[in-house]
Structures are given as C-alpha cells and as structure tokens.
Design brief:
This protein is 41% helix and 16% strand. With 282 residues, the chain is an alpha/beta fold. The chain has two domains: 29-113, Leucine Dehydrogenase, chain A, domain 1 (Rossmann fold); 139-262, Rossmann fold. The strands form three sheets. It has a six-stranded parallel β-sheet with strand order 1-11-8-7-5-6. The chain has a three-stranded parallel β-sheet with strand order 3-2-4, sandwiched between helices. Helix 1 packs parallel to helix 10 (261-279), helix 2 (43-59) crosses helix 10 (261-279) and helix 6 (139-150) crosses helix 7 (170-179). It is globular, with a radius of gyration of 19 Å. The mean pLDDT is 98. It binds guanine (GUN). Belongs to the tetrahydrofolate dehydrogenase/cyclohydrolase family. Pathway: One-carbon metabolism; tetrahydrofolate interconversion. NADP(+) binds at residues 164-166. Residues 138-279 form the Tetrahydrofolate dehydrogenase/cyclohydrolase NAD(P)-binding domain.
C-alpha cells in the first residue's frame, strides 16, 4: 500500500498557524510584507505568482504585486530591488524565475539582500545552507523536508537519491538531506545507470522536468517518492516527473501532482516571510 502525501492538507495546516503569527506581528505594529516581481507574460509564472499573492492575502501578509513588461531592462529591475532592500517595511523580496533572456538571473538573485531573500537563492544563503548554518531555505526543498516531518519519515542514515541538480531544487535538496544525516546521491541528465542508482533509494526526489519519466522500474519497493515535476502531457493534462499510476502501489509514500509539493512550496515561502518579519522585532 502506498501512502499518498497530501500537500493541500499539510500546507493548509501550516498556513493557519502562520495566520496567527501574522496577527501577533500586527499587534506589535509590524505588517509582514512581501514584494513579488513578475517580468513578462509566461503563463506558468503568472499562475505561480497569483498563487503566492493569494496565499499571502489569506495569511495576512501584505503582498506587493509588481508586474513588469517583457521589455524591462536589467537596470530597471536592479533599481527596484535596491529600493525595496532599503525599505524597512518590506521583509521579503522575490523575483519569479525564469526571467526574459536579456536579463542575467544571477545578477538579479545576487542583488536581493540576503536578509530579505525569501527564496534562499542568494549565494550567501546557499553557502550557509551547505555549511549547515541556514538563514533562509529554498522553498521547494524545505517543503519536502516538512513532508518527511509530518509523515514521521526519519531520513537519518537513509539512502537518498536526488534526480536533478538545479539551483532551485536539486542542489539545495541534497544539502538539506545531508544536513539531516541522509546518505545523498545527486544524479542528473549525464548520470550513467540512473535506473540502477534510483532503485537503491530509500528516498527518491525527482526534479528533472520530464513528464512521467520515473516509472515503477526506478523505484524500490516501499521507497519514499517525491515528485517535484509540473509538466503538461500530450493530452494537455498536468503531470509530474513520476508516472503516478505506475509507482502507486510500489512506493511506500508518494506525492501527487497537483496537490503535492506545489502547495508546500508556497507555504514555505509564506513561513520564510513571517520569520523575516519576526526577526525585524529583534
Ligand atoms: N521559479 C520556479 N520556482 C521558483 C521559486 O521557488 N521561486 C522563484 N522566485 N521562482 C521560481
């Protein structure tokens, strides 16, 4: 039997707790505030940003929703970031990725103050994470660690395999698992014998961006399988990187798409914003 991990339910519970923390902050005259910047018209990004601002509203976080045209220059975005870095009433800043091709994403990520970097993408925050002294955690891997906590999955000493090495998911996921004492293998598009390696995993995190790539052949009986994918299949249906029907019944635990990792990412973004606002009290 496979336990289907419910990201909707868990994220709702987390957000209810965050609403109480937001209320407490307001009683102390702090209004938690998050700047969300979207450049261009990418439809997927528009949905993600909409979900983020809506979650903020539900919790009582002031979301400053900034939409900029595709033609915006890098200098204009850097000016905007500098303005909000200096604004003491703003606790978190995020620029939705990907950015249009004429803009250097690294330069944008590095311009955000590490103290307001709710995504945890700044190299300073990445460095702290890899040294197991985190100040801000990338939201998707953080949300996955919350799943383990909720479902009493102890990763200590376990064989964890991450498929994908992106800065947003794969690399920070590996660091978090290592910090939690798992034995971590990071695999990617050039990995040889991927299937054999995946089959050894007690915990398998799949973040490769290829629809329904991982089927039951990649999965050890009883393994924990986390699906970070968001793809449209040929029929236009939203699917993960894991072939759900194939893996369901073999895995011990499995996250669905949608209603798995996605809502947890947003809950962790909100949690990071509240934490930054709480730090401003001290
Ligand atoms: N694009 C895909 N995932 C993310 C994320 O977590 N944060 C931002 N800013 N952009 C993304």
């Amino acid at each position: 039997m496979t336990v289907i991990m419910n990201g909707n339910e868990l994220s709702k519970k987390i957000k209810e707790n965050l609403r109480l923390r937001a209320t407490k902050l307001k009683e102390q005259n702090i209004e938690p505030s998050l700047v969300v910047v979207l450049v261009g018209e990418d439809p997927a990004s528009q949905v993600y940003v909409r979900n983020k601002t809506r979650a903020a509203e539900q919790i009582g976080i002031n979301a400053i929703d900034i939409r900029l045209p595709e033609t915006t220059t890098e200098a204009e975005i850097l000016d905007l970031i500098a303005k909000y870095n200096a604004d003491e009433t703003v606790h978190g800043i995020l620029v939705q990725l990907p950015l249009p091709k004429h803009i250097n994403e690294d330069r944008i990520t590095q311009a955000i103050s590490p103290l307001k970097d709710v995504d945890g993408f700044h190299p300073v925050n990445m460095g702290h994470l890899f040294m197991n002294e985190p100040l801000a955690l990338p939201c998707t891997p953080h949300g996955i660690m919350e799943f383990f906590k909720e479902y009493n999955i102890d990763v200590t000493g376990k064989n964890a395999v991450v498929i994908g090495r992106s800065n947003i998911v794969g690399r920070p996921m590996a660091a978090l698992l290592l910090n939690a004492n798992a034995t971590v293998t990071v695999t990617h598009s050039r990995t040889q014998n991927l299937k054999e390696i995946a089959r050894e995993a007690d915990i398998l995190v799949v973040a490769i961006g290829r629809g329904e790539f991982v089927d039951a052949d990649y999965v050890k009986e009883g393994a924990v399988v986390i699906d970070v994918g968001m793809n449209r299949n040929a029929a236009g249906k939203l699917v993960g990187d894991v072939d759900f029907a194939s893996v369901n019944g073999k895995a011990g635990y499995l996250t669905p798409v949608p209603r798995g990792v996605g809502p947890m990412t947003i809950a962790m973004l909100m949690q990071q914003t509240i934490e930054f606002a709480e730090r401003s009290l001290n």
